[in-house]
Amino acid sequence: xxxxxxETNLLAAMVGExxxxxxxxxxxxxxxxxxxxxxxxxxxxxxxxxxPLLPFQTGVLKEIQAFARKVxxxxxxxxxxxxxxxxxxxxxxDCALRGPHPVQKPFSKANPRLVILDNVDPGLVGAALExxxxxxxxxxxxxxxxxxxxxxxxxxxxxxxxxxRAARQTVVVTTPGRGDLYALALREKWPVFAIPENVGGRFSxxxxxxxxxxxxxxxxAPRLLRGAARMSEICWxxxxxxxxxxxxxxxxxxxxxxxxxxxxxxxxxxxxxxxTAFWFRQLWAESLGKAKTRKDEVVQIGQTPVAALGxxxxxxxxxxxxxxxxxxxxxxxxxEKQPWEGRIPKGRLRLEAFDYLAGRKLTELxxxxxxxxxxxxxxAGRPNCTFTLEKLDEExxxxxxxxxxFQTAFIAELLDVNAFDQPGVEAGKRFTYGLMGRPGFEEYxxxxxxxxxxxxxxx
Length: 459
Ligand code: PA5
What we know:
This protein has a five-stranded mixed β-sheet with strand order 1-12-11-7-10, with helices on both faces. α8 (180-188) links the parallel β5 and β6. α5 packs parallel to α9 (208-216). The chain has helices spanning 12-15, 23-30, 33-45, 58-71, 88-98, 122-131, 149-162, 180-188, 208-216, 221-235, 244-257, 274-288, 318-323, 352-355, 362-379, 394-415, 423-435, 442-458, and strands at residues 3-6, 77-81, 113-117, 137-142, 170-174, 192-194, 263-268, 290-292, 298-301, 304-307, 328-337, 384-391. The protein has three domains: 3-42 and 225-415, Glucose-6-phosphate isomerase like protein, domain 1 (Rossmann fold), CATH 3.40.50.10490; 51-222, Rossmann fold (3-Layer(aba) Sandwich), CATH 3.40.50.10490; 427-458, no CATH class. 47% of the residues lie in helices and 14% in strands. The radius of gyration is 23 Å and the shape is globular. The protein has 18 helices and twelve strands. By secondary structure, the chain is of the alpha/beta class. 5-phosphoarabinonic acid binds next to loops.
């Protein structure tokens, strides 16, 4: 397993002192590595943060595999109900390892479709129900808190649509003893897979949240964990030279705070990593966008994550990136070896715009476009860096997800913010409960009415 981080284009020598790191800044920042690793280690050792330990939970993995074996061949659709961190990880795994939906192999009981209902848009839910057969659908309900309005509303609809089958064809992933979903699961005798208390939604892809759907659609869950376990070991190394997550976190932190790059573009040159970019967008936004430091100082800090797809978005975003405000840092995600290289036929048409491509490979063109984009950005003084995955299989993906989680946790240490809470999301959830009339949330209904009055007066 090999994943490399190349920071050359973050350096002042490449993008100038105003936008890149001088040798002194670079060296001083890398010296902070051991202190950052030790600070994060304390949180893990105290049991406050659990994601680094997920790859080593072999008992949970065995339970998941046994369940997946038991139901294999009975369903052609796995319908996942969940939102945010309870859905994005499964999408990232499915998209990376089976390809984006339009190019996945035909679905069957041997290769079930993963239908993710992560919205309450009736246009999504209604259409999805029309395309599935309740006889051949397994429902996986994922919510850490077990009270999330969106997930539970869709569950009520799907349960009704399943009829009597819901009793035998529903499985729950939640934190036992927490929310009302757990209570319902006990009542209905649905199997329950546990999300550890100390693993938050966006850090939970390697818990049953991601592993159960992965196993149900036939992905190699043990290999995902093997890659993640190897990466965990690397991520605990205190020398940034040996630890790509740490080096990336240290350098991104400085580029963000000192060079004022408040937008972070994750730029995969792989359609298979497209969903991972959205998973990363949530990880970065919710973990690092905070009002206060852990010492309660008001900072209102955050770096806006953007997902861009190479090469597609060269023809939609690159103009802005090269010539617009210099407020962004770019992280390319490259995959070295592709299972199919796409050799272009050698025949010449005696037309200049075609003939230079004859006999070349799509992989060659994809790489040429990525390095050219990096060169264009660098020439324009836009800092950028690259993660390169040797290939895109379960092992590398598990490792890469774990690396990105460590990177996020490390940068939170540097910013002194809590990466593992989301008070802003909770506030929105409480307003919704108030508006929809959930008992106990009347205060939020009143606050909402005040807000409406202010709107009326404002015009
Ligand atoms: O990362 C997070 O904690 C959030 O995005 C949650 O995953 C999201 O709000 C859904 O919450 P829950 O899993 O409790 O339904």
